[in-house]
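Hello support,

Our group uses your service weekly, and this is the first time we've seen a run hang past the timeout. The protein is Cerebral endothelial cell adhesion molecule. I'm not sure whether the cause is the sequence or the server load. Input pasted verbatim:
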Amino acid sequence: MLSWIISVWTILVVAQCYFSEENHTEESNMHPPTVVLAIIARNAAHSLPYYLGATPFSLAATDHNIDNTTAILREWLTVMQTQYHYIEWRPLDKPTSYVGEPGPKHWTNGRYEYVMKLKQAALNFAKKHWADYILYSDTDNILTNPDTLHLLMAENKSVIAPMLDSQSAYSNYWCGITPQGYYRRTAEYFPTKQRQRLGCYPVPMVHSTILLDLRKEGTKKVSFHPPHKDYSWPFDDIIVFAFSCRISGMVQMFLCNKERYGYLNVPAKPHQTVEDDRINFVHLYLDSLIHGPPMHLSRYVHVPPKQSDLMGFDEIYLINLRRRPDRRDRMLWSLYELEIDAKVVDAVDGAALNSSDIKILGVNLLPGYYDPFSGRTLTKGEVGCFLSHYYIWKEMVDMQLDKVLVFEDDVHFQANFKRRLMRLMEEVEQVELDWDIIYLGRKKVNPEEEVAVENVRNLVYADYSYWTLSYTISLQGAQKLLNAEPISKMLPVDEFLPIMYDKHPNEDYKSHFPNRNLMAYSTHPLLVQPCHHAGDPEWVSDTETSTLWDDDNVRTDWRGSHKTLKGSQPPAGLQRATYKDEL
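Update from on-call engineer: The timeout came from a worker crash unrelated to the input. Re-ran successfully.
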């Protein structure tokens, strides 16, 4: 009866505003939900500083380490422990490996069971403390979107995962599973991974980073350990949990790809090492610098400075326009992470050159040159690009540098870049290959297969190519290019180089350069790619978006040159070359 009267009073207050309580203050806000964040770390020193820069935690376990994972976590806890309601810390220094484990990236049944028990302990801890949610997140999963937790909660699902990006097709979900509990390929996977469809989708498997809503009735029935009595699938913690959700009859796993939430590292193979895992993570970090949002180091963890070197080259050059500081900063961070020491060279800015400047520099157009697609002549951007490379060749000769490495400022490094390049150069030296230039990044124009170089892995004789993204060049090669006196008969630098190794299809152009004996090769597969291609929202070309070399009033852009998206073919009637979606 009392409750009924109170209810009536509440209605009267709202409806008639009669009582003095009508001036009541607003109700206070609800307490935010309580969340247990469980981290299980092993040999994660390379990713932990970034992980801790993005993800706090309240329960952590680390063991079986051969690196300084424990020290990093302890350092972070020393500063941050007062910021959390409760932290449970379970470090274990010994042993450093599991019984029967041939390497730190190999998973034995004993290791799987130990991880299941740790995850179950975290789940029990969360339930004991009446937490509303528990978030599991592997230490090579970097949640760069600060709203990830709130966004997942808003979906109101029992078990949900944010789709994380990687360096490959790998992600933290399956769209299909076989009756035996193995991965099954489905038509939905790639449209989801590539965000061609956006939403929150039911899937049979999510892993690596998952959020459980412990307020839901169904989550009371799910577990990691021990496996269900009817379990016969592979002995793997993520599959055991997926089976538990399925057998409960009340819990459906969901994947959400509505936003960009962060990144996960592609797992190392069983035979690989912690160093291989570190290198993989470095390239994941480089991807984040390009596609964003980038990863950030925790302010509360000390990371020793990296030791960079020249990789056996006499000099490494990074060509950058001063008015593109964003590109310079990204490239310098990338090179720092790769432990590569580079010298920044201010590019010649074609946009700052007027026709008089160009004439003073002695620049003249190659007679008869026209862009093969648009029919226009040289742009000032192309003049600036050519001069930037030319001055590096000249410095090489002036300083008698035996070999150098050149980067433009929009380079996307491929996996294991440094290791693969150093191995290549060692093999080139061992076989005493006569070389002048080796492309590390280019656009191969013709579809025919190129001839492989004997006794040197992943090296081919270069055919007609576009782009000067990155290359190595020898002193002999630089001298040959200077001897050709290209300034007085200029065309784009990526057209000039194929002329010099006698692979350009235009005989008229080649007739102006009689000594076409440049020894040109290319890595295969390529070691770098452009960050963006023509038509991408972030794509900018300072060579194409310019003006004609001898007329400041005629504007040009890539559409005028019929350049197109990556992988497309040129319109009928144009040169057989694939478009130069260049920088």
